[in-house]
Design a protein that fits this description.
single chain; about 325 residues; alpha+beta; five-stranded mixed beta sheet; 6 helices; 15 strands; binds copper (II) ion
Length: about 325
């Protein structure tokens, strides 16, 4: 069922439980759809005009249908009490403490995600609505001593793997929705409110790319969709031994032509940015382009990235 529903790869610790509920709910709905469909066709045939000239005003005399209705209601109740509520209370609303998590602030706007990290001191600097400008979309008050080392990015969320991530969400303008399908996270972002959401990524982007890798068949004049600007998962050599495409490099149209010329008909590649923050609320005309990139890294890579970004601040 999971494959049939086309659920994306699950890269979070709580994802299996969410997927389980989605799968069970769909089984129940499929059963009801088939059951009601069969019943509907049966009634059309059984009570057709030629067989039943006169309408029966009493109708059904047995209680079978009432029992069936009750059984379905009980099953739905069990789904709610046995699965949905426990997942909600044990996973969704069981927030980790701030000491036990990486805390990040995300401020949504039409049409971008502003990300705010506290920097080395671990304390978030003051943000002031009057300081918001094109260069400072967060309105970060750099004169505040704790704000000096704060890191701000636009549409780029870097996170370490296997660590609790606690995100404080707010919006500058309208209602947005912070959705990361691969992490099974979706939370409305509401102006004037700060809403928390948490999760724990279990795969780095490199691992996700490995498991998303796909073999694309290439031939002259035929470039499969999604291949250009994806990342090569294998290296490819020309017949003279020179490297055409190195593992980890972008697959470009030029490279594909060279590969075809060398008689290579298959390329193993994966998306460059496999994980995205997609805005899941129709928030305006630019809604479609409100997407951020999520990069899940090892703890060391993440620290490196933070240090690199901190260096920019010293300019
Ligand atoms: Cu939006």
């Amino acid at each position: 069922m999971k494959e049939f529903l086309g659920l994306p790869l699950d890269a979070s610790a709580h994802g299996t439980q969410i997927d389980q509920i989605i799968v069970i709910t769909h089984w129940l709905m499929l059963l009801l759809f088939v059951g009601w469909g069969v019943f509907f066709i049966y009634t059309l045939v059984r009570f057709r005009k030629s067989r039943q000239q006169q309408a029966d005003h009493v109708g059904v005399r047995s209680h079978a249908s009432s029992y069936l209705e009750v059984a379905i209601a009980v099953f739905e109740g069990a789904l709610l009490v046995g699965f949905a509520i426990p997942v909600w209370s044990n996973v969704v609303s069981a927030f980790p403490s701030e000491q036990d998590a990486l805390v990040v602030h995300v401020v949504a706007e039409q049409f971008a995600w502003n990300v705010h990290y506290p920097g080395v001191d671990g304390v978030f600097g003051k943000r002031d609505i009057n300081l918001i400008s094109e260069d400072n979309p967060l309105g970060l008050d750099r004169s505040d001593p704790v704000a000096e080392d704060d890191i701000a990015t636009i549409n780029q969320l870097n996170l370490p793997v296997n660590k609790n991530i606690l995100i404080y969400l707010t919006s500058k303008d309208v209602i947005h929705s912070f959705g990361i399908p691969l992490l099974r996270v979706k939370q409305d972002v509401i102006p004037g409110q700060t809403i928390r959401v948490w999760f724990r990524p279990t795969m780095t982007n490199d691992q996700i790319r490995e498991s998303m890798a796909k073999r694309y068949t290439i031939s002259r004049g035929q470039i499969p969709e999604g291949l250009v600007l994806s990342v090569a998962m294998d290296g490819y050599q020309a017949s003279d031994g020179s490297l055409i495409l190195e593992k980890g490099d972008y697959v470009t149209e030029d490279v594909i032509e060279q590969l075809i010329a060398e008689g290579i008909s298959e390329v193993n590649a994966a998306p460059d940015t496999p994980m995205e923050i997609a805005c899941a609320q129709l928030c305006g005309l630019g809604h479609y382009r409100m997407r951020g990139t999520v990069t899940i890294q090892t703890a060391e890579e993440f620290e490196e990235w933070l240090a690199e970004d901190a260096e920019y601040l010293e300019w």
